Write a sequence for this structure.
């Protein structure tokens, strides 16, 4: 488990995890660009038309659960990998290869996401299911 980085005073920490609780995490820092994505990989992996993402500072991510860090799958070879629970299969995160600043977190993996106005989508869909060749990002 990693320690939380030193971030400016007043920076909020949010917790979240998978359905079974084996993977838990905290993210410190303000969410950026909350949005829904309906690209083919997101839709196929989720089994639904859209997924609801937000970016958080990668330096503020700490894996805190009994299983440690999420398992990762390269959904776009050499471009993006997705974090999930190897026990229950819950989708949790996305990380672009080479991005050292931001990690994508599925908003629905955050505890209390329904009561946090910082996660309201900015009415931006990165890709529509009707465009099967477009990927998120």
């Amino acid at each position: 488990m990693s320690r939380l980085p030193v971030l400016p005073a007043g920076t909020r920490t949010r917790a979240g995890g998978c359905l079974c609780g084996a993977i838990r995490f905290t993210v410190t820092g303000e969410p950026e660009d909350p949005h829904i994505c309906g690209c083919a990989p997101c839709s196929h992996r989720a089994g639904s038309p859209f997924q609801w993402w937000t970016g958080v500072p990668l330096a503020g991510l700490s894996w805190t659960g009994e299983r440690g860090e999420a398992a990762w799958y390269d959904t776009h070879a050499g471009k993006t990998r997705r974090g999930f629970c190897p026990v229950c299969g819950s989708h949790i995160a996305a990380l672009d290869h080479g991005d050292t600043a931001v990690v994508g977190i599925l908003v629905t993996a955050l505890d209390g996401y329904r009561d946090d106005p910082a996660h309201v989508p900015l009415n931006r869909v990165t890709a529509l299911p009707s465009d099967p060749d477009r990927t998120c990002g």
User: Anything to note?
Assistant: The first helix runs from residue 40 to 46.
